[in-house]
Amino acid sequence: MPECRENGWKKEDLSQIIAKLEDSYNSHKGINHVDGLNIPTSESIHEIIKDLFALVFPGFFGKIQITTSSINYYAGNLLDSLYGKLSEQIKRALKYRCTLENCCNCQCADRAGSLAAFLLESLPEIRRLITLDVEAAFDGDPAARSVDEVILSYPFTKAITVHRLAHVLYKKDIPLIPRMMSEWAHGVTGIDIHSGAAIGESFFIDHGTGVVIGETCEIGNHVKLYQGVTLGALSFSKDEKGRLIKGEKRHPTLLDDVTVYANATILGGKTIIGKGAVIGGNTWVTESVDDYTKVSIGKPDLIFHRKKA
């Protein structure tokens, strides 16, 4: 690392810095994207997420006050704008994959338009699912004073909304964008839900900080998680060259009505948590659990050291 200069840098130093940066670009090409096709940009994806929130929660997000008489115009204008933004970013993602796979007869632009339209056409169903999620949060948290509070202030609401949007794109095998969306939500909320996870109706994460849900998780209806829960992989299979095998079922399945308390860890693609089961806090589960079974750890031995007055 260079030494710190007391009087700052001089203009003549600029050419030296540029030259060293250029050497770095040539030496570490793995983190460059130069002379390649345009790829989806983080800024554009974040803008799209904000516009989607304005459509999913009209009146809650966005800068415009919505009235009954104006909502038709508002939704139509936003949908038209979103279609163009989504199509462009999806086209970039598809062309990126085509370049990697040496595809010759791709129709990325046409496919991008169809996929963008599919997501926008899915919004009514996504709104139905998110309504059930928000109601589950309100019903499941005694601290919640109103549904409006859940929508405006709960990190869970942002995380599950982005997930349900990104999951639609993930299932359509769109590269890059679903993961970019889920990682935006992760950064904003502290809740890490891979866009591939399949999550049922009326889902709720209380508090949420530190929750991790892996790509191949399958979660049923009316499932509730608390902070610090990990639904992860137990091990990773490798091929004959020692490379990780992609696409295997690595993460657990939670059936309907499961509750998982704070800091519990559930691992493994063959691990199935049965209907109505309760997984206690701080437990480590790597095997299947029968329906309506409670799993807990023994009471720890606490040692109290009283200070002298």
Would you kindly provide a written description of the structure presented here, covering whatever features stand out?
It is a single chain. It is built from eight helices and 14 strands. It is 42% helix and 10% strand. It is of the alpha/beta class. The longest helix is centred in the N-terminal third of the chain and has 31 residues, at 71-101. It is globular and about 65 Å long. It starts with 12 loop residues before the first helix and ends in a 14-residue tail after the last strand. It folds into two domains: 35-190, serine acetyltransferase, domain 1 (Orthogonal Bundle); 197-237 and 247-297, UDP N-Acetylglucosamine Acyltransferase, domain 1. It has helices at residues 13-27, 42-56, 71-101, 108-121, 123-140, 147-153, 155-171, 177-189; strands at 192-193, 198-199, 204-205, 212-213, 218-219, 224-225, 230-232, 253-254, 259-260, 265-267, 272-273, 278-279, 284-285, 294-295. It has a five-stranded parallel β-sheet. The protein has a five-stranded parallel β-sheet with strand order 3-6-9-12-14. Strands 2-5-8-11 form a four-stranded parallel β-sheet, with no helix packed on it.
Task: Provide a concise account of the structure shown.
The protein is an alpha/beta fold and 309 residues long. Helix content is 42%, strand content 10%.
